[in-house]
Amino acid sequence: MMLEIFDYEFMRRAFIVGMFLAIILPTMGLPILLKRLSMIGDTLAHSSLAGVAIGLCFGFDPLLASIAACIVAGLGIELIRNKLKAYQEISTVIILAASIGLAGVFMSFINNANSISAYLFGSIVTISDSEFYLVIAVSLFVIVCSYLLYNTLYLCVFDPKAAPILGINVKFINFMVTFLSAVAISISAKTIGSLIVSSLLVIPVVSAMQIARTYKKTLLLSILLSVTFVYTGLFISYFFNLKPGSVIVLISVIWLILTMIIKKN
Questions:
Q1: DSSP count for the chain of H helices, then E strands
Q2: What domains, with CATH codes, occur in the chain?
Q3: pTM exceeds 0.85 for this model
Q4: CA–CA gap between residue 94 and residue 72 (Å, rounded)
Q5: Using CA atoms, how far apart are residues 189 and 195, in angstroms rounded to an integer?
């Protein structure tokens, strides 16, 4: 009964795409959270929505427009952070405000409201061939880059003052974190949803932090939890005809609450 879900190609694709996204989102979420930049997730998620609205309005591929918008937003965040060193957190607020404004304006010109709703709450089971392969390719790119930057990123997160002394370009590492996060969030817009993706970026990491005690263990556990949330959400949404993205986030929130209660006791 349970395995009948794999008789359908669209569900097999959903599980494959879900696995990749469940890996890359907490991978980028951990350094973002440790650098006290969790607001970036929400900002880039809204930027992806603005990109989708612009793409639908002008006839571009919404997913490619989402990626482009997130990259531009990420570059904007880094630029403002470097200009306003004493108020770096303002960078996310400025880009968030601009993204919401642009999304609202361009949504006004879209006749089919259903086309944008898929990006608000996710539509992982209706992903097209091109989107399927694009998600896999981009996910592999993020995973490889994260692996290559692992040691330098670890040092930049925990000892940013010593990093330059050891010859590490901190600005470049910060840029790569923002860039890779932008790419990861943008390709998650269609599958998990722009309004939900920031939660999956942070909640598995916070849940893992309640249990793990090292950076590496927290990263691995957050990925394991993320994959579990996604797969459980796909099963539940299939059998009860619910929105997959919403179910996935609710499961992750419930798990986090239970973990915090158990830890407190």
A1: 12, 0
A2: 2-264 (1.10.3470.10)
A3: yes
A4: 13
A5: 8
